[in-house]
Amino acid sequence: MANQNGNMYGLTILSPIIDDPKIKISHDAALRMYLQNMHRHERSPFAKVSGTHICRLVVMDDVVFVGHPAKEEHLASKYLVFNSNLYGGLDAYLEEMARKMPEVVDDIWSHCIGYPGTDPQAFAAYMKKCQIETTFYFADVNYKTVEQTLTALQTKVEFALFIERQQGKSPAELQRAFAAFWARVEKLPPPLAGLKELAKNQAAGV
Amino acid sequence: MTNINGKAYAMNAVTPMKAWKTPILRVLFFLLGALKSKQQDLINLSFIHFARWVIVKRDQFPRLAPEQPEEHLRYDYLLFFSNFNGTWNQYIDAFSAVLATGLNLIWRWSEKFPGSVPVTAFKRYISLVQFDTDYYYTAYPYATTNDVKAAIRVDDALREFAGKSQGTTPEEFQQAYLQLLVKIQADLGEAGVAPMGT
Asked: Which pTM does this prediction carry?
């Protein structure tokens, strides 16, 4: 299935945006303002949706006229593009969006035609009506969850510091230090999703 | 700029295609998906987290209510979404230098595509058909795709080592530890800062 690459799913949604000439601020303009001010990094609402590796929201105003001899044409509606690279199954992901970020889902998709509200199953069904099949999906790493990826990034930093601090130690000291290190690192929770920087743990390498 | 989050850049592009060309492109994408060897150059470039092409036929734009106007389009459209590391110029330069044949096979069906070589006309075309991202999220903005792959290699190797080194003498442990370091030494570097520039 073209949407799938290994355990990764390339979700492409085009939701038609409401066009109401009677309102002062158009829905597409309001949507843009909202997205501009939405929390980012670890405070992003998508950080709560566990399968989200990378996603984006784009207000697509129109198609592009590439010049003569191509013909100029225009979309009758504007579309909200939601593009996510997610680990796992589609229905579970969409329902999780509605459960974990209901206010944001409402704030965004209430600008779109046919939006049913944040009932998880109704929202998932609506999004699937707006889904376009991905024709070709490339995923460089396609088999790790977000948590596994974050854990690996943290472990690498921890171990690099450990190596640095254990230089010159005797075999017995090294073995004891590694046992303590591994017992600590194995229990570390993964870093928060969306963090701008991975902070080096002050106790790292011990 | 919302196209950028940490080390990741979100590119969006839309190009028109005459409807009769769409099935040809679908066959080419099918072959690209089926023949993994054809993706090797893309994998070797190793600076794209995820990328996708999406064909939207002229009658496929979602219409969810009778009051929503119907689309009356002449062309089908090819959407392209990429999440890559580095600057826009580095990305397009690398595509042009390394993937010219593949890119031409994909985009030659789009109207007025000039070819991916020479790069100046290619960049002009991409600038024309690109549109900006309004919100961009990544779970690991500080990590490039190479950082992610290196971290996975270190994590996997370390877990294996931790299991196998149990019950060894200190001297055996040290020997195995040094072998581990040799194995993963190229993957231990810091993630570093994102590139500056355009």
From this structure: 0.94
